[in-house]
Amino acid sequence: MTGPSPRTFNFGAGNPDPGVFPSRDLGEAARRALTRMGTELAHYPEARGLPELRGVAQQRFERNHHVRPPLEDIVITNGAMQGLQLSAQGLARPGDAVIMEEFEYSGTIRVFKQCGLELVPVPVDEHGMRIDALETILEQRIASGKRPAFIYTTASYQNPTGTSLPLERRRKLLELGRRHSVLIVEDDTYGDISFEPLQVPAIYALANAGEVMYIGSFSKILGPGIRLGFFIATEAIIARLMPWKMDGGTSMLSQLVAAEYFKDHLWDHIEEGRQAVKDKRNVLLDALEGEFGTVPGMRWSQPDGGLFVWVKLPEDVDRVRLQELAVARGITYATGQAFHALNSDVAYLRLAFGWIDKDDITEGVRLLAECVREAMPATVAS
Prior knowledge:
Blueprint (H helix, E strand, L loop, with lengths): L8 E2 L12 H15 L13 H15 L8 E4 L1 H12 L6 E5 L4 H9 L3 E5 L1 E2 L2 E2 L1 H13 L6 E4 L13 H14 L2 E5 L15 H4 L5 E6 L11 E4 L2 H7 L10 H41 L6 E2 L7 E5 L6 H10 L2 E2 L1 E2 L12 E5 L5 H18 L7
Parallel strand pairs: 1-13, 3-4, 3-7, 7-8, 8-9
Antiparallel strand pairs: 2-10, 5-6, 9-10, 11-12, 12-15, 14-15
């Protein structure tokens, strides 16, 4: 007989809480949608997506940010990642530069690099992208004739740092883009996962028409497996993006089921998911304080939303050894290097708290603390 499976602690998966995935309600939504509109599946989907689901995106944005984007400016995509890929292909050419946070989602970095774009990192602090550094970088590049294709930012609950740009930084970012005629691509994938009442509107909601392309997600409030996202942009920007959307249209089945489910459950589901991951965040922050609160050189973000805590390690931790020790104890996390725009080896790691079971968080952090201590240089007796 084989023994029980070893316990694992998955702090690596950037997924929402699986416990709130609405399997039964989605099944009922699928039955209703297919009974009423199943013949739609005999056709290719509309290029910009099902109007009912675009209407859900419109409703979400208006409720969150008090601005109602035109329905014709909303396009459904195969996950938010397709929106990123379209921005790289439609708004830039190989060799063009994209300005972005120094630390960004590894998938975003991979897409931009595969499209042949030059990544220009901007330093970040506890409030997100440093706009003073951005201003200097923009002026230097434009003075040298190297105008960037666009500025990319995850302004709210950023992955991996968990930071959010304050209102004054958002306004200054817009002013810089306007002054230098540089488009802003705002990735708001985690915007609905807010643990406190939303106080700062999306950059898109503050902008004039044509200054910002906004990318959103349904996957992060429902499940990545549904592969549904959207972007909002003016017709002039959409015209540059749509020739690259060569997928035959986003799955009509996924759109039908999601639109039918969200018609009655959107805000209740968002609230349930928010609360579930907020509880996990609180457990994680308490565990980090208990294990690392007195360790010199250790600090971590205190996110007001999203799915990630960004942990600064002491510089003298052997990061290769640390990961080996963690794997041996069943701990998965993401290294800081995976999120660095220039692939630099940095003394950070990302802990995701959406997927892991809440009851495993404290023990996982305790074991991680053991790994950190073992990966520190041995103290030499004087």
